[in-house]
Write a structure and sequence with these properties.
Order of helices and strands: HHHHHHHHEEHEEHHHHHHHH
Structural class: mainly alpha
Radius of gyration: 26 Å
Low-confidence stretches: 447-471
Strand content: under 5%
Distance between the termini: 55 Å
Largest sheet: 2 strands, antiparallel
Length: 471
């Protein structure tokens, strides 16, 4: 029995379920890279040096797996394989798009894009490890929530003065450090979730004390003002910078966390009305909003100008049909910014409807797993943190997929773990590290048995005359 117990503990420490699930993204990375190498040339000869990115990626996966087994063995065993599958698809697509862009636009500067993306993946896994090591107790995040919020908003505000525009998009949202560009708004979305989770945890007992404000029933307003002020300041900065994608993302995160904390759909309805009113005002004030709405409603009159991007993306989806043209047989380079904003169009062209649905399923499972971690969290703060972080991934995916397919106006944000870019990729790995830590802390808590219902007091029998019998 002792030997059997030791063997069982060893298997648990190895995280056997995770070990098996990681085989799928490992094989996907190898096979996908082989296709990218073989298809353009038609030559089946290759060396292991050609597969260095896939081999490095597999090493990162299983290195992280054994690290979790050694330090976070109770952490969720499905989250890492899901992220690995999406990231594997991302690295393959970036390598494929680099070859297509180099062939279509020689000498423009697309050389080494895949190598840089692999560098961000390595840094992302390093940040994931660092997040797990530094966040052994998440209470310090809640304790310094105002500090994080002020620093995050301050970084975004600094882009108004020191920001750069390396992509020529017309908005200065990045800090330029040599070959590396950092976008503070990517980090601010995590900081804002930490602040909201900590603040909602502090006032959790006051949320049930409602005050009538006209037809609305709200918690005491003085306790809501700091939270609304921090969120409102971030929204004002995004509007000033014309970073409409981040503004929409932050608005959705705020509403989702407020609804989870209170359980009142009235906040969602009121927030939706406020969003429509704000969108109408921005439509009247900013020409870029009018242009994007016009392109969204009917891109064909702008097909040779500002609507060229979405029109080419729609052609790509139509070309891919159900099963796609085949990996490496499409022409994704005709879609502008295909490796950043419109990587989903490349997936639709070469992998077809089947590939796009599979990609969406990966994201749905990832968000579902994050909410599952939130349901099992050990307290309200960890629950709100997990829900907020999962909402970031879900809303960001929904917004970029809606823009890339023409369902909503374009917003200019990236597809998590797939699009090219260092800031987004590293921030998303921070999110996964925090989710893994929340799940590890939740599973380490001893679960109390359900309380037995209180027994009703036994009344002494009474006689037919209504008197208690004599002993």
């Amino acid at each position: 029995m002792i030997a059997l117990q030791r063997a069982t503990d060893t298997i648990r420490r190895w995280r056997w379920t995770e070990f098996q699930l990681l085989i799928v993204p490992a094989v996907l990375s190898l096979v996908g890279m082989l296709i990218v190498i073989v298809v353009p040339t038609g030559n089946l000869s290759f060396t292991w040096r050609d597969l260095w990115m896939s081999l490095l990626f597999i090493g990162l996966l299983y290195g992280t797996h054994f690290f979790l087994g050694a330090t976070q063995r109770r952490a969720d065993q499905v989250l890492l394989p899901l992220v690995a599958g999406i990231t594997a698809l991302g690295t393959i697509m970036i390598q494929r798009l680099q070859l297509s862009l180099e062939r279509t636009y020689p000498g423009v500067g697309y050389e080494g894009v895949a190598t840089k993306q692999m560098l961000w993946v390595v840094l992302g896994f390093a940040v994931l490890w660092a997040t797990l090591i530094l966040s052994r107790d998440l209470v310090w995040l809640r304790r310094y929530k105002y500090t994080w919020a002020v620093l995050g908003i301050g970084l975004v505000a600094a882009t108004l003065v020191f920001g750069q525009d390396p992509n020529g998009s017309g908005v200065r949202l990045w800090f330029q450090f040599g070959f590396f560009s950092f976008q503070p708004s990517e980090l601010l979305k995590v900081v804002l979730v930490i602040f909201l989770a900590g603040y909602l945890y502090d006032i959790r007992d006051l949320l049930s004390l409602n005050t009538r404000v006209g037809p609305l029933s709200l918690p005491p307003l003085p306790y809501l003002l700091p939270m609304v002020a921090m969120w409102g300041l971030a929204m004002v900065l995004f509007v000033i910078q014309k970073d409409l994608g981040s503004a929409l993302l932050f608005f959705g995160i705020f509403l989702a966390m407020l609804y989870v904390a209170t359980g009142k759909p009235l906040y969602v309805v009121a927030g939706g009305i406020a969003f429509l009113a704000g969108a109408f005002v921005m439509y009247q004030l900013f020409d870029i909003v009018k242009l994007r709405v016009g392109i969204w409603l009917n891109p064909w009159p702008y097909a040779s100008g500002r609507g060229y991007q979405i029109v080419q993306a729609l052609y790509a989806y139509a070309t891919g049909q159900v099963l796609g043209t085949g990996f490496g047989y499409g022409s994704p380079a005709w879609v502008p910014a295909v490796h950043t904003d419109f990587v989903f169009a490349a997936i639709g062209e070469e992998l077809g409807l089947a590939g796009t649905l599979a990609t969406i399923c990966f994201y749905v499972l990832l968000v579902f797993r994050g909410f599952h971690i939130g349901l099992r969290a050990r307290d309200h703060f960890h629950q709100m943190l997990a829900v907020g972080l999962s909402t970031i991934l879900g809303l960001q995916t929904l917004i970029i997929l809606g823009g890339a397919t023409g369902m909503i106006p374009l917003t200019g944000i990236t597809l998590p773990f797939i699009s090219y870019g260092g800031s987004s990729l590293i921030t998303n790995f921070i999110i996964i590290g925090l989710l893994l830590r929340v799940s590890a802390l939740s599973e380490s808590e001893p679960r109390k048995p359900p309380a037995r219902p209180a027994e009703a007091p036994v009344r002494p029998p009474r006689s037919f005359a209504g008197q208690a019998p004599t002993p």
